[in-house]
Specification:
- The complex is a heterodimer of chains A (about 150) and B (about 180).
- Chain A has about 150 residues and is an all-alpha fold.
- Chain A is about 50% helix and about 0% strand.
- Chain B has about 180 residues and is mostly helical.
- The two termini of chain B are about 60 Å apart.
- The chains are: A mainly alpha (about 150), B mainly alpha (about 180).
- Chain A: It comes from Spodoptera exigua.
């Protein structure tokens, strides 16, 4: 057995002259700014950005005041117009309800067979109807347009 | 509906008036002059509206408000129509929220025209946002009745004083602590 395996063996050894030294020495990155400079830069840039922000903020506030002023100037006119349209629609709704329920015996307009919604209010008090009542006699499309006004604005 | 037949609603003929048929951009363009020229009647209307809290009570003043705005717009159209249209067009098309910031040049042209031909000056900045004192000629409304007096009768009135108050026949529920 020993004689059958007589092969020249070569031992794994370092290269002649030995291994090169391992470069373990730390190579720091090139320092562009010192710590104090970076702090100073941070505060400087932040201060400049805050200055720009304040300019922009003042501009936005000015625009808002101008727009609010313009809207408040025409608000009474729009409200007067809206009131007339609103009262017109209320009368239209009441007439439509009277027309719709004229065949129902015992039905009184604005009540449930004579039972009022608000019993303690004086009779001539205008109670603003809720949204669905206000749009009860209009088409689905008008209701949708008003209910989902935010989809269009 | 909560609107019964007892509620007085104005007739259509009472509600009919000459409305201002202008778009938002044009109204906002003219808003400074409308607001200044119609300040008294506008304040009167808003005061009425706040005090009465009822749109039916302020219809006449509301019509005056609309008529005043129409009068101002008519004067603008007569004297400064082109400048107004230019400015309104700019406000309408420069942004989607009718910002005036983009239209300073056309605004200056319009203001010059208003100053020279109509002797109307634009108010100082933010005039309509500030609180102003309005001396109203109308009387304040009657205060609401005192809420301390109930309007309806008590459904479970107490025993009249003349009735005898006998001790309870079977004692009280607190027999274990008050005897």
């Amino acid at each position: 057995m020993d004689q059958a395996c007589q092969v020249a063996r070569k031992q794994d050894l370092p290269p002649p002259g030995g291994y090169k030294p391992i470069p373990y020495k730390r190579i720091p990155a090139k320092t562009l700014f010192s710590g104090y400079t970076m702090f100073a830069g941070y505060f400087g840039i932040t201060a400049f950005a805050m200055y720009l922000y304040s300019l922009n903020y003042k501009q936005i506030v000015r625009d808002q005041i101008e727009m609010r002023s313009a809207k408040m100037a025409i608000y009474p006119m729009l409200l007067a117009e809206r009131d007339r349209a609103y009262l017109k629609q209320l009368r239209k709704n009441r007439d439509a309800e009277a027309e719709l329920m004229k065949d129902v015996p015992g039905w009184e307009v604005g009540t449930y067979y004579g039972e009022k919604v608000y019993k303690l209010l004086p009779p001539d008090t205008l109670v603003e109807p809720i949204f669905h009542e206000y749009y009860a006699h209009s088409g689905t499309w008008e209701w949708f347009q008003r209910a989902y006004l935010k989809l269009r604005s | 509906m909560v609107i019964t037949n007892d509620v007085t609603l104005p007739e259509y003929s009472e509600l009919k008036t000459d409305e201002v048929k202008l778009s938002t951009g044009a109204l906002l363009t003219a808003s400074a002059f409308i607001g200044k020229q119609c300040e008294g009647v506008n304040n009167e209307f808003m005061l009425c509206r706040q005090e009465q809290n009822d749109p039916r009570a302020c219809l006449e003043v509301g019509k005056q408000v609309t008529a005043c705005a129409k009068e101002v717009l008519r004067r603008i159209r007569k004297e400064c129509c082109q400048e107004f249209n230019q400015y309104a067009n700019c406000v309408d098309k420069s942004s989607r929220d009718y910002t005036f910031r983009h239209c300073r040049k056309t605004q200056a042209i319009f203001d010059d025209c208003m100053r020279e031909r109509l002797c109307l000056l634009r108010n100082d900045f933010g005039y309509f946002c500030r609180a102003r004192i309005h001396k109203s000629s109308s009387d304040p409304p009657e205060p609401p009745p005192c809420p301390c007096h109930p309007k309806v009768e008590d459904a479970t009135p107490s025993l009249p004083d003349c009735k005898p108050r006998k001790p309870a026949r079977f004692g009280g529920r607190l027999y274990w602590c008050n005897d």
